[in-house]
Amino acid sequence: MADVAVYTLGCKVNQAESDELKSGLEKAGHRIVMDVALADLCVVNTCTVTSESDRKCRKLIRMLGRRGASSIVVAGCYAEVNPGDLESLPGVVRVIPNTRKEGWLEEITSLLPEGGRGGAGTWRRRARAFIKVQDGCERGCSYCIVPRARGRERSRPPAEVMRAVSSCLEAGAGELVLCGVNLGRYRHDGGTDLAALVRQVLSAGEDFRVRMSSIEVEDLRDEWLAEWASFGRVCPHLHLPLQSGDEDVLRDMGRGYGPRDFLAAVGAMRETWPEAALTTEVIVGLPGEDEGSFLRTLKVLREAMPARLHVFRFSPRPGTRAWGRGDVPSPREAEKRSAVLRQLAEEWRLGYIEERRGEIRGLLVENLASGESGDTAFGTTEDFIKGAAPGVEGDVRTGEILYLEIRGVFEGMALLGQAARTAD
To answer: What is the pTM of this model?
Structure first.
């Protein structure tokens, strides 16, 4: 038995892969530990979507070395795109690119010593379990390194997905988040699309709900919205990436849709699935983005009024069509625009919660904290509100869904109060 620490940077697909690795290691008799001082081997699952992501990966690996990690395996997207950057870092004994990730459990296991340090296992399965169902991208957006890092599009066989579903449910997950680099393009053997897969996942039981991680505008179908709205156990929440609200910038990016298409998709969602929350993301400082482009993005966002908005700075990546472009805003201007959007994003997020004061939500309990006045449950509602419920009563467990009343905002989160233990 060996003790392994696993660190993950980046997207939900990476998180899903790391969770499956941890599960596989545990089934093989090894322990997952959080403390590097207890680990016989550290695994770092990397991200390379921006230059800042690369920097964070290198910083983490060096930090692990300083804290005593003598055996570090580096895997993931950075390992695929620039393995040479990682091989020379102190403590790195193996670099596993994404092209070898399907067999990384066996490869990592082969590096483990027969006798571990005897640390106490501390990993606990997520109450919101991430399940990868699709990988790879063939869109070829001008700014994006993901196609090079993740390869061609491919969908996971439904039987394999269902095995992962069963494993997560057995571990007590109350919400399954279906993840993919291009989730809306899930196809298997020509007959199973994303909607059919969701139906199969829901057939695994009754005491859990399903959430989609992100769907591109051009992949979303009206019939999916109608079907998911009718189920009751599909979380009323869609993440539809915008990236820019300017027609020319989107065309130059190679996104395959325009701002009117985005707003039409949002309108269809709100008409067919009115309780669904919209979240989105934008990239600031893209090539060709002038002040007018930014103002048009603001206009689209104000019309869409997302419940949550993620703001990213454009990061030039070698190997992409946007690399070396000179028509990018200055760093100072890009930061100024980012600050404007971040402030609006926070106003919209808090406003969304306040507008729903008095409504009942199902809070999936992800963490519990004990205090003088009882336990406080922290978690996520079906429409993706992060919230806290102080003074919860009874034997509450992580993975359970508590039906509570939204009472306002406290310390940046929704404050929820006890209303009823079940949906009834």
So the answer is: 0.94
